[in-house]
Write a structure and sequence with these properties.
This protein has 510 residues and is α/β, with parallel strands linked by helices. It contains 17 helices and 24 strands. It has a 6-stranded mixed beta sheet with strand order 6-9-10-3-11-12, sandwiched between helices. A 6-stranded mixed beta sheet has the order 18-21-22-15-23-24, sandwiched between helices. Helix 4 packs across helix 5, helix 13 crosses helix 14 and helix 14 runs parallel beside helix 15. The longest helix has 16 residues. The protein is globular, with a radius of gyration of 24 Å.
């Protein structure tokens, strides 16, 4: 007989003009890892925000039963007292505080009114860090930890509150392969300790590896719940539920017409702005031809983003040396304005921090990189701007109420389409894409792949940075590899495979 820990029945949640959840049902067994899958905008994060009290009782219809008891959470503190903890995709740690302070923030260990017992806090933090496999100094600032270790601190914080149901929203989206493996092993260990987990992830391999059950949402509705114990649930089966059809090919067929060298980077060197003697890019060189999609592979810390951002003029300034050539002529790239004027566009790895103005509407974000096209005598024409933004929104297939919707209200995949649309509006000659499909679903990925291929077919150059080797192999005509700031090799599409790339990505200095 099953032991049901959580049941959500008939959950409906509306935003102005949008039904985000439409009569959704979810049933989670005690002690299982339950995956929640769906395309961007399907309602996964919204459902978990309802469960955790981010959207309080009264702002949705339907009911939540935990251990058979009807719950009415009016805030996160209510759900936490019931044993529910949610870890959002964007980490909620305070960088300036210590590891121990972050773990017990709002749940302080005291020895009297207004007096924090720091010794007890550090000792308890050390114990709970041990449960997640971290051997860190509890007094160290959390900013000194890698993203993967910060993710584990978030889980330790949840465990300190005696959690029985742990919700993880895209927990590995910013982690490298080793860190992701470590986190997944931890989930299995927590399962052995009796902790139930709900895992939201777009990484199908992770889900099929650790999940006991999979619930699929589509367009705010529950489509089906699958048990992996049957042995009939694989990645293709989950995709079919998510998109409502078979997705026979993960990557569009590539038929490239590649021309002459359009952009070349020679002897590109970037020194760290604060750590004297540390070189983050060391004499790198690469070239991109007209109509070509070139990949850049490397492990975390290899220098890929530093190379891209410095070429775009986004950072490092006087710490950069080397030359970028366009059509054989050297470019003077001192800042972002110079790069844009030279026809270079950069879609950043962190769309929320560097790619979008989340508080502004879709219209402003889409036209931001090409204001000259919607202006007369340096004054923006609102009518032209609205028409241009609507045309780009339609072209990018952004799901929204219209161009006046706040960008921050969009799903992750639709936000990524807005970032990409912003730079396509500028009509670049070189488009640099830094992890362009991170944290988005397979359907949205395919749409972005089609857009990138169409841009290359029109004669633009594309430099694609990705941590997903299958993505590079499926999309690129040539692939460069980086390790410790150096370009360690180049492989054409027909000879590239994961093994050869990984060898180059780990080729350290002699």
């Amino acid at each position: 007989m099953s032991d049901v820990l959580l049941r959500m029945r008939g959950i409906t949640k509306e935003f102005p003009g949008v039904v985000a959840l439409d009569n959704v049902d979810l049933r989670v067994e005690r002690g299982e890892i339950h995956a929640l899958m769906g395309e961007n905008g399907a309602g996964k994060s919204t459902l978990m925000k309802v469960l955790s009290g981010v959207y309080p009782h009264g702002e949705y219809s339907g009911e939540i039963l935990l251990d058979g008891e009807v719950c009415a959470f009016h805030g996160i503190s209510d759900s936490e007292r019931a044993g529910i903890a949610i870890i959002h995709q964007e980490l909620a740690l305070v960088p300036q505080l210590s590891v121990a302070e972050n773990i017990y923030l709002g749940n302080e260990r005291t020895r009297g009114p207004g007096l924090i017992d720091w010794g007890r806090t550090a000792a308890m933090a050390r114990d709970v860090l041990g449960r997640v496999g971290l051997d860190e100094d509890p007094t160290a600032p959390v900013s000194t930890l890698s993203v993967g270790r910060q993710q584990l601190v978030e889980i330790a914080k949840a465990l300190s509150k005696r959690v029985s149901l742990l919700i993880l929203d895209e927990p590995t989206s910013a982690l490298n392969e080793a860190e992701s493996d470590n986190l997944l092993r931890l989930l299995l260990e927590l399962k052995e300790q009796g902790i139930t987990s709900i895992l939201i992830s777009h990484k199908l391999g992770e889900v099929t590896r650790v999940a006991d059950s999979v619930t699929v949402l589509r367009d705010g509705r529950t489509i089906e719940t699958l048990s992996t114990a049957s042995g009939h649930v694989d990645e293709d089966r989950i995709i079919r539920g998510m998109v409502g059809r078979d997705l026979d090919e993960r990557y569009p067929e590539r038929s490239a017409e590649i021309g002459e060298v359009r952009f070349e980077v020679r002897d590109w060197t970037v020194d760290h702005p604060t750590q004297v003697g540390r070189r983050v890019v060391d004499g790198a060189g690469l070239e991109v031809r007209r109509g070509e999609i070139v990949g850049l592979a490397g492990l975390m810390g290899a220098g890929r983003t530093e190379l891209a951002m410095s070429v775009f003029g986004r950072s490092y300034g006087r710490y950069v040396h080397g030359t970028v050539y366009k059509d054989g002529a050297p470019l003077r790239l001192h800042d972002v304005d110079d790069a844009i004027s030279a026809g270079i566009a950069y879609v950043p790895e962190d769309r929320k921090e560097l790619g979008l103005i989340l508080e502004d509407d879709i219209r402003r974000n889409l036209t931001l990189a090409g204001l000259g096209r919607v202006s007369r005598r340096a004054v923006i024409d609102p009518a032209r701007e609205a028409v241009a933004a609507e045309e780009m929104r339609t072209r990018m297939r952004v799901k929204s109420n219209g161009v006046y919707q706040t960008t921050g209200d969009l799903s992750g995949g639709n936000q990524q389409k807005v970032v990409l649309g912003k730079w396509l509006f500028a009509e670049p000659d070189l488009l640099i894409l830094d992890e362009p499909t991170r944290g988005i679903d397979v359907g949205a990925k395919y749409e972005i792949y089609l857009i990138v291929q169409r841009l290359a077919a029109q004669g633009a150059c594309v430099l694609l940075i990705s941590s997903e080797l299958p993505e590079l192999l499926g999309m690129c005509d040539r692939i460069y590899a980086m390790c410790e700031g150096r370009i360690t090799g180049e492989i054409p599409r027909e000879r590239a495979d994961q093994e050869s790339l990984m060898k180059l990505m780990t080729m350290t200095k002699a």
